[in-house]
Amino acid sequence: MKLKIVFLGNHTVGVQVLKALYPYGCLSGVVAHPEDPEDGNKYLSVHDYANELNVPVIRASPKMPLLLDFINKIKPDLIWVTDYKYLLPSEIFLLPRLGAINLHPSLLPKFKGRASLNWAMIHGENKVGLTAHFIDADVDTGDIIKQVELPIHKHEYIGDVLEKIYPLYRTITNDVITMFLNNNIQRKPQNSALGSIYPARKPADGVINLNKNAYEILNFIRALSRPYPGAFLIKDRMKTTIWKANISEKKFETCGLHSLNNEIYLQCTDHSLKITDYTITEESFDV
Fold first, then answer.
1. Best-predicted range by mean pLDDT among 40-49, 167-176, 276-285?
2. Residue 105 and residue 22: Cα distance in Å, rounded?
3. For residue 42, what are the contacts with CB-CB under 8 A and spacing of at least 6?
4. pTM summary value
5. 237, exposed or middle or buried, with CB in 10 Å at 0-12, 13-18, 19+?
């Protein structure tokens, strides 16, 4: 069965999916985010890669009439979404005869919404995953097609997890497109009572809550480390961004940062953390 697919997406993960879809000869159009200074710099560019493939590509959000016109002209059998930050209206996701699907970086129904990998690590999860699911009118609630699990080890940081999950985007794409081509799609409804929707995260959300224990704060640090802006504390207009740390047996009387023998520690409500990688910069406000 020959399919016509319109892909909507962004980021390095979007390029991974394009690399998997293109050899099947079904990629009829690509929609990338509007102009973004990080596109092609901080991460790979879906727009640029589509141009390399000579696949028709536009930059558009759902509020732009250009998007609906582009999709209507192609008349796709399937819409495929990966890291497209806009919610699709029903007039778009109901257009293709086979529907619209999304690749979401969590084990749905857990961690619906934005920044799923970061939220999972903040909450101390020992595994994350990738879910292919149909798009419906709500946020990440459509029927599940396939899931792939990825264990998280306690010594790993978000950058490690990203490097491990990137190849899974190609793996799950190959599996799911094969299901469509063989007319062998399986659908598993989600339990809407399970899981929560999490919001996007901003750099300012990285401030460390000193009312947490060492395990919780270490998870927070791991979840926000490079390539993200990092977990931090600000005192006397100096911002200490903590990239890596370990649980320590050292004890200090007050919660917060302490220096001992040219080493830096963060005392939490129970144990302290030895800070092994950090940067200090000047800020214009205190937290």
1. 167-176
2. 22
3. 227
4. 0.94
5. exposed
For residue 206, give the nearest of 231, 227, 181 by alpha carbon: 231
In whole angstroms, give the CA distance from residue 129 to residue 143. 16
pLDDT digits (tens, 9 = 90+) for 180-223: 999 999 999 998 788 899 999 999 999 999 999 999 999 999 99
Tally of residues, the chain: 287
Can you read off the two tokens belonging to residue 166?
A: 């990137």
What's the token pair of residue 5? 């697919």
pLDDT in tens, 137-164: 999 999 999 999 999 999 999 999 999 9
* Phi, psi for 99 (deg, rounded to 5): 95, -165
Instruction: Report d(CA 172, CA 14) in Å as an integer.
Output: 13
Which two tokens mark 44?
Answer: 């790979």
